[in-house]
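Subject: design request, 286 residues
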C-alpha cells in the first residue's frame, strides 16, 4: 500500500518529435512542481503523423527515438517515474509498434507494452482508421510494480482503444493491478460519446484507479482528439480532469488502500460466475 501524487500530461503532439519533446519537458516540469512522482503522457506522445512519408521518415528504433530518450533523461533529472503512454517505434518486422515505456527515477526502463487491440473502425462523417495497416499488435499484457512513496503500486498497462476491452483490465486486476491505465488519442466524436463512461466503468468494475492521459485538440496532421485526461478512483469518482483539449497537467493523490476498501465493499471480482456457464433455452451451440 502506498500514497503518491500522479499527474496526467495532456498533449497536442504534432509531426515533429523535437517539438513534442519540448512540450513534454515543459509539462514534466509543471507536474514535478506540483508534487507528482508518477507522470503519464498520452498515446503517440512522440508524433502524430497521418502522412505515411512523414511517419516513415521520423520512425526510429526505440533506443534512437528522441522522445523516448527525452523521457528517460527527464525521469532521471527530476527523480520521478515517467510512463510514456506510447510512441511509434520500429518493430521487428515491416510494421511499427505502438509502444508504452515506463522509466524509473534513475532512468531505468522498467517496462514496455505494445498495444494489443488495433483501432480498425469506420466512424461517422467518413472518419476511418486502419491501425493494423501500420502497427503490429502486441501479444502480451502489461503489468509493472512501481516503488512509489513509502510503498509500491502495481500498474496495468493499456493504450487507448484497449479501454474498450474489459477482459484485459479484469485480468490485470485479478493479477493484482491497483492502477489501470489507458493513455489515449481518442477521436473527438468517440470521446464525446464514450470517453468518461469507459474510463469510469473500468475503475468501478475492477475496484481500481484508472489514470489516462489524453491527446487533445486540432493536431498538425489535421486530426482532432478529445482531451479530458482523467484520474478516476476505485469508486468511480473523477479525482482530476483536464477540462477541455488544451495541453496541460492534472494532478491527484492516489492512496492504494482505497483499492482494498472498494473491493471489500463490492467483491464483484471474487463473485464472478458468468464465464463457463451455459445459456438457457438450448442456446449453448449458438
Ligand atoms: O495511428 C496513429 O497515428 C496513432 N494511433 C491512434 O491514434 C489510435 C489508433 S488510430 N487511436 C485510437 O486507438 C483511438 C481509439 C478511439 O478513439 C476509440 O476507441 O474510440
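Subject: RE: design request

Done. Sequence follows.
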Amino acid at each position: 500500500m502506498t500514497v503518491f501524487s500522479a499527474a496526467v500530461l495532456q498533449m497536442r503532439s504534432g509531426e515533429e518529435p523535437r517539438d513534442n519533446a519540448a512540450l513534454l519537458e515543459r509539462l514534466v516540469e509543471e507536474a514535478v512542481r506540483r508534487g507528482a512522482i508518477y507522470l503519464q503522457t498520452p498515446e503517440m506522445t512522440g508524433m502524430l503523423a497521418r502522412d505515411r512519408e512523414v511517419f516513415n521518415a521520423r520512425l526510429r528504433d526505440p533506443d534512437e527515438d528522441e522522445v523516448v530518450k527525452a523521457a528517460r533523461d527527464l525521469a532521471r533529472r527530476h527523480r520521478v517515474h515517467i510512463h510514456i503512454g506510447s510512441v511509434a517505434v520500429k518493430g521487428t518486422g515491416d510494421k511499427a509498434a505502438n509502444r508504452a515505456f515506463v522509466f524509473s527515477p534513475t532512468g531505468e526502463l522498467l517496462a514496455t507494452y505494445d498495444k494489443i487491440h488495433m483501432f480498425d473502425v469506420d466512424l461517422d462523417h467518413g472518419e476511418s482508421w486502419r491501425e493494423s495497416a501500420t502497427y503490429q499488435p502486441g501479444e502480451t499484457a502489461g503489468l509493472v510494480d512501481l516503488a512509489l512513496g513509502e510503498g509500491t503500486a502495481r500498474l496495468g498497462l493499456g493504450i487507448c482503444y484497449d479501454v474498450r476491452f474489459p477482459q484485459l483490465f479484469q485480468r490485470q486486476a485479478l493479477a493484482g493491478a491497483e492502477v489501470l491505465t489507458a493513455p489515449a488519442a481518442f477521436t473527438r466524436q468517440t470521446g464525446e460519446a464514450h470517453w468518461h463512461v469507459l474510463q469510469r466503468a473500468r475503475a468501478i468494475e475492477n475496484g481500481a484507479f484508472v489514470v489516462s492521459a489524453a491527446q487533445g485538440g486540432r493536431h498538425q496532421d489535421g486530426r482532432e482528439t478529445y482531451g479530458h485526461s482523467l484520474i478516476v478512483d476505485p469508486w468511480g469518482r473523477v479525482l482530476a480532469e483536464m477540462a477541455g483539449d488544451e495541453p496541460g497537467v492534472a494532478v491527484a493523490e492516489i492512496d492504494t488502500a482505497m483499492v482494498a476498501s472498494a473491493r471489500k465493499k463490492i467483491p464483484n471480482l471474487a463473485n464472478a460466475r458468468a464465464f463457463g456457464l451455459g445459456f438457457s433455452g438450448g442456446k449453448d451451440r449458438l
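Residues 3-271 form a domain with the Nitrilase/N-carbamoyl-D-aminoacid amidohydrolase fold (CATH 3.60.110.10).
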